[in-house]
Design goal:
alpha+beta; about 270 residues; 5-stranded mixed β-sheet
Length: about 270
């Protein structure tokens, strides 16, 4: 992903950082511009809604008793069935937020066997639950559950979540964030479809991966000589990578204009979802 080319495409000047692009990565301003070029499924979130999600994120951080001591990026996901969106923020150490961009997602769809409600809370992205990359293989229903080969699967470990079937008891599920089948499932992002994991668009997956916005712990270990094989050599990690996925529920009763329902073809609607 060429930052200079992406910025030029939208008429923005390329702004190299003082210590070099590879060492420091993109600035917040650069990253927000590149997001609009690189991510093909965008949501235009109004300013008042951004403030709402900042408050929801702060409430989850407080509930988890997490004090954010350093400036970093955070990914906030709204699991509400009427929203289904991911918002990428930068948060300073004093609690000031900057916004990068937003994209539709699919979270858990209760009501079917082996489908969980995606748990709410703050989830730490760490090599203790190592990420891996999709193999791009099809299952028996011709679905590539993790998307095309090479896309990153973010693993947040075993988490407590209510079953979406049977007695609804709270039990454990493996929480992951990953791309999905580009033909039958990605067009349905923006609606709850998954078994409990968070599905994101392939372009958004590549963006998060290339700029390492959630890779603070991975990069810390890499600098100590313990680089994970999942980190690409051509990555341009941001200057202040983060480590937190924050899953919230805005509790809406209708869909906001800025997060419209996806438009899918009749053929896509008939495909069996997994």
């Amino acid at each position: 992903m060429d930052r200079r080319r992406a910025l030029t495409a939208v008429g923005a000047p390329f702004l190299p950082v003082a210590t070099g692009a590879r060492a420091q990565g993109a600035t917040l301003r650069e990253l927000s511009v590149i997001f609009r070029v690189a991510v093909d499924r965008l949501l235009e979130v109004p300013a008042d809604e951004l403030l709402r999600y900042q408050s929801l994120a702060e409430a989850e951080l407080s509930r988890a008793q997490i004090q954010v001591a350093s400036s970093q990026y955070m990914l906030v996901v709204d699991r509400c069935a009427w929203v289904q969106a991911a918002l990428l923020f930068w948060r300073s150490s004093d609690g000031t937020y900057g916004f990068v961009g937003a994209s539709p997602v699919s979270t858990g769809r209760p009501g079917a066997f082996d489908h969980f409600e995606t748990p709410a809370g703050v989830f730490d992205h760490t090599p203790a639950n190592p990420d891996f990359r999709a193999e791009g293989t099809y299952n028996s229903r011709r679905i590539r559950g993790y998307g095309v080969k090479g896309l990153r699967v973010y693993d947040f470990g075993w988490q407590w979540a209510p079953k979406g079937w049977g007695d609804g008891v709270v039990t454990t599920m493996r929480l992951q964030m990953h791309a999905t089948d580009p033909d039958s499932l990605e067009p349905r992002l923006g609606t709850a479809q998954s078994k409990g994991c968070i599905r994101i668009a392939a372009a958004f997956n590549r963006f998060l991966d290339h700029f390492g916005v959630l890779d603070a712990e991975y990069e810390r270990l890499a600098k100590a000589g313990k680089k994970s094989a999942v980190l690409r050599d051509d990555r341009e990690t941001v200057a202040e990578p983060g480590r937190y996925l924050i899953d919230v529920d805005s509790g809406r009763s209708q869909r906001p204009e800025w997060s419209p329902a996806p438009r899918t073809s009749g053929a896509a609607r008939r495909r069996v979802l997994v």
